[in-house]
Write a structure and sequence with these properties.
Layout lengths: L24 H22 L10 H25 L1 H12 L17 H63 L6 H25 L2 H6 L1 H14 L4 E6 L8 H22 L3 E9 L2 E8 L15 H10 L3 E6 L5 E8 H4 L2
Parallel strand pairs: 1-2
Antiparallel strand pairs: 2-3, 3-5, 4-5
Helix pairs in contact: 1-2, 4-5, 4-9, 7-8, 8-9
């Protein structure tokens, strides 16, 4: 068995283990060759065939027949001995690169060479996953740092400038200047709207509610603002018992929820979106479900932000599962192992 995609049981071999469960492959091949030679010698000794200096054509045919039998036996034995290599190739081909933690499962009765090869391959998979997660961690960390910087500059500098301009326009409007008060009022309203837009962009770049209120309240705020933006109801469900998460894990959950809700509002045409955060035995789960039009055919792997959500899930060793049917909406489930994210 091989570790499968989300939802399937995994059998993971112990990395670095070396189990000697039988004779080496060289010893087995040598033993097989000896066995074949012994069988051939017995054939020559016991078979009613006499070899003389002038063999007849019939004798040659009999010897050729027996030789064919011996070679067939050798072929069968070698194929049986080399079957673990074919199994190894099939297991490697069946591994899903999108399933974190996928490994070649242990098998009984393997030679030390094949067993060591499987263990070495598992070691390599582990190192590659660690490197990929570290690369994603660095990239996402740099991205979030840049977003935080831009959000801070927009809020502190541009926001203050626009606020001052709005106050100036309001003062002129109330002081009876030659400029029509209605015009100044329109200017003030437009500037106030610009301030609100700047604050909205700032929240999108770095969710202030996540820093100030925590993950549960931040998700509630996200759903409320998404509902206010249109006619779609975005309903939050934050269940009791969700463990405290690290700042990194909270950001991953929030960003996945944000991307899932945004995709649903932009592409699915739903009337309702439900966002659920729950603490299950051994896991923390985020579930985003909409009742939109769904998707026909295979789910996209790298469009509409799905690749980014997968990368964020993989960053913490989690899984991202997407399910959709035409006219039945989309379901996005993020599952994080609790022992990896509890602060």
């Amino acid at each position: 068995m091989i570790a499968g995609v989300s939802g399937r049981p995994r059998m993971v071999s112990v990395v670095g283990s070396r189990r000697r469960t039988g004779p080496s492959l060289v010893a087995q091949l040598f033993g097989a060759s000896v066995l074949v030679l012994v069988v051939f010698a017995l054939v020559l000794l016991l078979a009613p065939v006499q070899i003389d200096s002038d063999p007849a054509l019939a004798d040659a045919a009999i010897l050729a027949g027996w030789l064919a039998v011996v070679l067939a036996v050798l072929l069968v034995v070698l194929r049986r001995l080399l079957a673990p290599l074919r199994d190894l190739t099939a297991d490697v081909d069946a591994l899903d690169p999108h399933a974190p933690g996928g490994r070649l499962a242990p098998r009984a009765g393997l030679t030390p060479e094949i067993d060591g090869l499987r263990a070495a391959f598992n070691d390599l998979l582990g190192r590659l996953e660690d490197e990929r997660r570290e690369s994603v961690r660095r990239a996402l960390g740099a991205q979030e740092a840049e977003r935080a910087r831009v959000a801070r500059e927009m809020h502190d500098e541009l926001g203050q400038a626009l606020t001052a301009l709005a106050l100036l326009a309001e003062r002129h409007a109330e002081g009876g200047t030659p400029i029509a008060p209605e015009a100044l009022r329109e200017i003030a309203d437009a500037i106030h709207q610009a301030i609100e837009d700047v604050r909205r962009l700032s929240r999108e770049l770095r969710p202030e509610a996540l820093d100030d209120l925590g993950l549960g309240n931040a998700l509630i705020t996200l759903c409320r603002r998404a509902s206010e933006a249109g006619v779609v109801r975005v309903v939050p469900h934050v269940e009791a018992g969700v463990p405290e998460l690290t700042a990194e894990a909270e950001l991953v959950v929030y960003r996945v929820a944000q991307e899932a809700v945004t995709n649903a509002l932009r592409h699915a045409q739903p009337s309702r979106v439900d966002v659920t955060l729950a603490g299950l035995p051994g896991t923390v789960e985020l579930l985003v479900v909409d009742n939109g039009r769904g998707l026909a055919g295979p789910l996209p792997a790298d469009t509409n932000g799905i690749a980014g959500m997968r990368e964020r899930a993989d960053l913490l060793g989690g899984t991202l599962d997407l399910r959709s049917e035409p006219r039945r909406g989309m379901q996005i489930r993020l599952v994080l192992p609790r022992d990896r994210v509890v602060a």
